[in-house]
């Protein structure tokens, strides 16, 4: 398996590249529209063509690169099935492995940060690697104050779905804001200040309800844009338009061609 | 590959178990005498027989479990060749991979914590995993004030041998004192408070020389004992004798038998 951890600075997002060496199939988990070209250059350097993009959830802090990458590579857009996004090509759900060549990713329904959040577990008997999305971060977790967030559900997702995995399980989160890259299940069970050290649910809920976080910068255009798999809505503020403008032409051409309306 | 990260509480030491699934051969990196039985129980649960013990360096903070494990399982004792320990069965050196079945561990001569310290890199093209011993710890590093320690050499070991590896390289240290289990090369390049963020050598040396650490509790018996691969010297203080007493009988029997002096 080829693996790369890629970082998008503006939203501190980690995008993960996994590729099956035997078949050449590959996936980008949580790609960001701003770094779509960088991601494609990385794939190109590795001699890979993008097969899939895969979302953990509908993001509020960045636009997904899914639609832009599909426009540029014809990759398939994969999202949690319960998101019911008409723009997606495939839906995944807990209980059915999503296969990227010989790599099996097991979707784990882990609501709490959003109502339909999923994590992805790679467990081939030898390696235990968990992509936690925004549900569990390094010594932190995703906020629960918007998008059907629910602190009780997040507590159950973390303690019942994640903390029951082997302690050595490598944890790759969707974000880190302090230059960290990785943690493990054991490390978070020991050290996570919100949910580690067997903290009870009611204390976790009190912590989450007391965070008093600022309103997300990009949520007003990111959520509707991501419900369209990364389409740039018309109301993207000027300072965030850049990555949208660069895709408008190929996307429009491709989509019109595909729809048969023109050309 | 089977992998386990095992912890010895008194010295906060991580012992690593690696086993080749194809051949059943396995190694314990930096086993501790106090937890030798626990390690063997883990191996037993996995259906494995111990093939090798492998040391990163001559420890000052615990007695190695190498000799005890050899007495109990007939495992071979592997150490850096430049340690020139007559008690060892095999010596490893940089430039020659040490093979445990199909697992190749590449020794990296990384002096500074001790004069002959080695790290071990597992790099099969797909996985990059580095066992750093005491040279690089999570947001820390080994001390340099005894056993031919040298802050300039440690700086070069970390920046020239470790920080030139891919950022995604998983870093498993020989110790953590705060419940952490893992880091990466990229994370330490970013965040290590002593050597990260491109800190220059002279500043690192000043930090190391200013640490003013207490005299190690076990050094007076651990170093001579580890120069005998984990033989308990007569002057082990009573409070640390426990794991020594439990091995004296089988070790003596075995060694006498092997030497042909008796029985």
Automatic annotation (TrEMBL), chains A, B:
Q: What does this protein need as cofactor?
A: Fe(2+)
Q: Which CDD domains match?
A: POD-like_MBL-fold (cd07724)
Give the molecular function GO annotations.
metal ion binding; sulfur dioxygenase activity
InterPro entries to which the protein is assigned, alphabetical: Metallo-B-lactamas, Mito_Persulfide_Diox, POD-like_MBL-fold, RibonucZ/Hydroxyglut_hydro
Key words, A-Z: Acetylation, Dioxygenase, Iron, Metal-binding, Oxidoreductase, Transit peptide
Residues in domain Metallo-beta-lactamase? 12-175
Q: Which domain of life is it from?
A: Bacteria
What GO biological process term is on the record, naming one?
Answer: hydrogen sulfide metabolic process
Q: Gene3D superfamilies, per this entry?
A: Ribonuclease Z/Hydroxyacylglutathione hydrolase-like
For whether the record's keyword set contains ATP-binding, the answer is no
Q: What family does this belong to?
A: Belongs to the metallo-beta-lactamase superfamily. Glyoxalase II family.
| Protein's UniProt name | Metallo-beta-lactamase family protein
Q: Which organism is it from?
A: uncultured Thiotrichaceae bacterium
């Amino acid at each position: 398996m080829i693996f790369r951890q890629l970082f998008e600075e503006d939203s501190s997002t980690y995008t993960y590249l996994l590729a099956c060496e035997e078949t050449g199939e590959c996936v980008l988990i949580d790609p960001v529209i701003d770094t779509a070209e960088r991601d494609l250059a990385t794939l190109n350097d590795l001699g890979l063509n993008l097969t899939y993009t895969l979302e953990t959830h509908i993001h509020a802090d960045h636009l997904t690169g899914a639609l832009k990458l599909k426009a540029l590579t014809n990759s398939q857009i994969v999202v949690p099935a319960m998101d019911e996004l008409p723009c997606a090509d495939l839906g995944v759900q807990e209980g059915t492995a999503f296969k990227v060549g010989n790599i099996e990713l097991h979707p784990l329904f882990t609501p709490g940060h959003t109502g339909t959040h999923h994590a992805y577990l790679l467990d081939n008997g030898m390696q235990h690697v968990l992509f936690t999305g925004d549900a569990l971060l390094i010594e932190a977790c995703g906020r629960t104050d918007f998008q059907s967030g629910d602190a009780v559900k997040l507590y159950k997702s973390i303690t019942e779905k994640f903390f029951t995995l082997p302690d050595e399980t490598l944890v790759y989160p969707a974000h880190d804001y302090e230059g960290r890259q990785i943690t493990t299940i054991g490390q978070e069970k020991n050290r996570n200040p919100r949910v580690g050290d067997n903290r009870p649910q009611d204390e976790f809920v009190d912590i989450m309800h007391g965070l008093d976080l600022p309103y997300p910068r990009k949520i007003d255009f990111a959520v509707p844009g991501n419900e369209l798999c990364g389409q740039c809505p018309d109301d993207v503020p000027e300072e965030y338009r850049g990555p949208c403008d660069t895709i408008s032409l190929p996307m429009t051409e491709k989509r019109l061609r595909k729809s048969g309306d023109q050309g």
